[in-house]
Amino acid sequence: MKRSEIRRFVERCLDRQGARVSEVGPALVRVELPVDEGEAAEKKLLAFGKRVHQQNPEAELVAVGSAFLDHLVNRAASEGRFTVSFRPPPDEMPDPPASKSLPEVGRATWARPKPAYRPVFLFVYVAEYRTIDVPDDLELIALDPARGEAVSPVGPLIEGMKSGLTEAPEGWEVLGTLPTRGALLRSLALLDQRLQRRARRVKEAAALEIARETANIEAYYRQLIEEVRHPVGRARHSPEDEAGRVRALQLDWKRRVQEVARFWEAGVTVRLSALGAWMEPCWAWPLRGRGPRGGRRGTGRIYLAADPISGLVHYPRCPLCGERVRGEAEVSGADLVCPDHLEADSETESAVG
């Protein structure tokens, strides 16, 4: 990292922690770190660059590998695993839209619309490939669950999260900052589509390596077996001894081939590394009551959202088939699904935990 990049990162981290940062000189800043109430503020003098540090030995050097920077990086990584940021609300919102076009959900009813914040999620996945020569991937999947659609590009979303509000304005309801099971399934489906092309290339490269290594092993062991069966300059083995030696070489041959196949086996392990929630202002209709299946599932935090200015209703997609849920719907956990998908969703629920 360049010195200017390190300084910008440090100042942003300290600002988010509530520290006061003031410039003392070129590449030299004074920091007052927040402490518990009643205690004196902890003050530090930070130098960005070895020359500045030599001129100000009382300052603490901030560079790659320094204890102060390592502490900030570790703290930022820990806190950054889950981030919530709010878009500033519009200055004015027209009257809420009519609710005539909302889907019917058994005996449940839609409550009156209210100003609220709904999440747009940024899933940060790490794809770890088994083969050593293939680097891991960092995949960003942005998903708007209210619309059931991917958000692309993700750059504006990330920039908005950097500069957004840390809390919702007073009077605005927050409709959950964690994804439902349906949103998680949808993000994994989008991730699978993205990884398919690279997975094919990885499988093809692995198959070539397996074929090459297997051919080399085959040539090596065939030569050894030939030397056992037709020794040069040595007495021949007895038939029993020769058969035993050949059998041992064949078993070792098979073991080596299996090791190569396991070593070059194409595969990828995916894990969720971080999650961001970009909270968008909206009109929201919370769902009240129970679904049509005798109250077997509660509605939880189910809602429908509309654009705060135009009033356009956002119809979600069924997490199982991808179709928009419009006329009728059923409740599964905290998701709306198509009417004939509730039983199938019960099987999916046990599969994903």
Number of domains: 3
Total DSSP E strands: 15
Q: Helicity range of the residues?
A: 25-40%
The radius of gyration computed from the alpha-carbon positions, rounded to a whole number of angstroms, is 30 Å
Q: What overall form do the CA principal axes indicate?
A: flat
Supply the helix-strand structural class: alpha+beta
- Overall mean pLDDT stands at 83
Q: Report low-confidence residues grouped into runs of 5 or more.
A: 291-300, 344-353
Please give the alpha-carbon distance between the first and last residues. 41 Å
Helix and strand run? HEEEHEHEEEEEHEHHEEEEEH
Helix tally?
A: 7
Beta percentage is 15-25%
Describe the main β-sheet briefly.
Answer: 9 strands, mixed
What does this structure look like?
With 353 residues, this protein is α+β, with helices and mostly antiparallel strands. The chain folds into three domains: 3-79, no CATH class; 83-194 and 270-352, no CATH class; 195-269. 36% of the residues lie in helices and 25% in strands. Strands 5, 6, 7, 8, 9, 10, 11, 12 and 13 form a nine-stranded mixed beta sheet that branches. The protein has a four-stranded mixed beta sheet with strand order 1-2-3-4. A two-stranded antiparallel ribbon has the order 14-15. The longest helix is centred in the middle third of the chain and has 49 residues, at 181-229.
